[in-house]
Structures are given as structure tokens and as C-alpha cells.
Design a protein that fits this description.
Number of domains: 1
Shape: globular
Helix content: over 70%
Largest sheet: none
Length: 287
Amino acid sequence: MLDAATIGVLRDVVTLVLLALGIGLFVYRGIRRALPEVNWNYQGNVLARLYGPHDAVMAMLLLSPYIGGLLLYSPAETAGPASSGASAAAGGSAQVGAVLSQIVFSLGSTAALLVWLRPLRGLDVGDLFGIRVLPIGKVIGFALGAIAPTFLIVVVVNLGAVELLRSVWPDISPQQVVKAFETSGSVPLRLLMGFAAVIAAPLTEELLFRGLLYGVCKRFTDSWFAALVTSLLFASVHLHVGSFIPLFALALILVAVYEITGSLLVPIVMHALFNGLMLIAMLLGAK
């Protein structure tokens, strides 16, 4: 359950990011009208020139459940009395149902995104996301080579963030989903959470945030601005202040990897490896 302080901070961040995005689109449009030769949005290895305004609308529609849920969330809705007895006994079933719902939602979002891009827009997803840029062996090799320094950077950033927040934020405990995984004795629940973390979430989040949203933002601004905006949104929708800074760092690394390789498969595999390593650390009792 999310407290009012968490909702307030993340809501303010998202509001400011969306405001900055609106101003940025206006400013960059003016720059391009004044300087037609400027082509920052076409630099790098991520293909952005094929996107149009309708893709921006679709990106916001697909993102709206994440952002809308945060902006419209009311902490009072979860402020009921503590459960006990039969309610506690039903907690495991409720958690399984919640994780299943999350998986269905994630895969449904992925399907909607692909349907929009391929049958409706007529875009070749393989070309758009650089799926065929690297052979699968090089994708896995690059991801395996990059995951260790990425994991180390995020861990160090997380330690710094904890120290930074310790004196100013009332709750720096792990996310609810992390607590649930660590404390649950249910094998089916842990398997479902593992599938959600290692398969569903990396696929959906990379296609949405690094794939469509970053590509669209880059098309109408530039790669630096797009990286900052999409990474801030990515960190915000995870709904946890304590994890905001390390998730922001992770998102920036995944954007950089996407631009370096030109293949969205690499950040997808890295995201899956990162989440898998986190699950292993939790199973081993690492905090």
C-alpha cells in the first residue's frame, strides 16, 4: 500500500516531467523552424525518423495506465482496518491473483503496442527497434558483458541514495513486491513473480519506455532530452521513492546501451538479467 507522502512526491515528479516535456516539444519545434539544418533527433543508432504525431498520442495512451494510476491514486482507498484471521489466510491467493493480473496487463500492453506499430502503422518492428542489427549471439554477449558493471553501478547508486534519503525520507524500506517475494513461502507465487520480473516486465517496459516512448521523444526533441524524460517516467511509475534514483540510473544505462548497439534486444536481455540477479540476491537473503 502506498502512503500519502510517496504518492505526493512521485505525483509532483511526474507532473514536472510532463510539464518539461510539453515545454521541450514547443522549444525544440521552434529551434527546428529557425534552424532547419538541425538534426539532433536523427543522430545515434536508434531509428526515430519514422515516428509521427499519432505515435506520440499512442505512446501516451499506452503510458496512461501507469501515469494515470499515479496521478489519480488516493491513499485513503487503502486505509481500511488491518486484516486478520480468514483475511490473512486468503492473502496468498490474493497475491497470486494480483501477480497474474500484472502479467496479463503487461503482455496485453505489449500486444497492443505491436499491433499499433505493425498492422495499423505498417512499420517493420524489426527495423524500427533494430532487432536484426545484431545476431543473437552478439546480443547475449554484449548483455552479459555489460550487466556486471551495470549491476555494480546501480548498487553503488542505491547505497548513495539510501544515505541521502535516510535523514529526509521516513521510509526507505524495500518495495512491497520485494518484501512479498522475500517473505512468501509459496512456490507458485515466487514462480509467477519470477516470470513477471524476468520475462513480462523487461519485454513490456523496454518496448514501451526505451522502444516507443524514447523513440518518439527523440523524434521531436533530441536523444539527451528524451533519455532524461523517459528515464524519469520509468523510475516514477515503479511507485517507490527509495528506488527512484537507482531505477533512474538503470534506465539511463539501458537507453545508452540501446543507442550504442542500435538493438532493443540488448536492453531487453540486460533488463531480464538485472531482475534475475535481484531475485537471486533476494533468495540468498541479500538486503
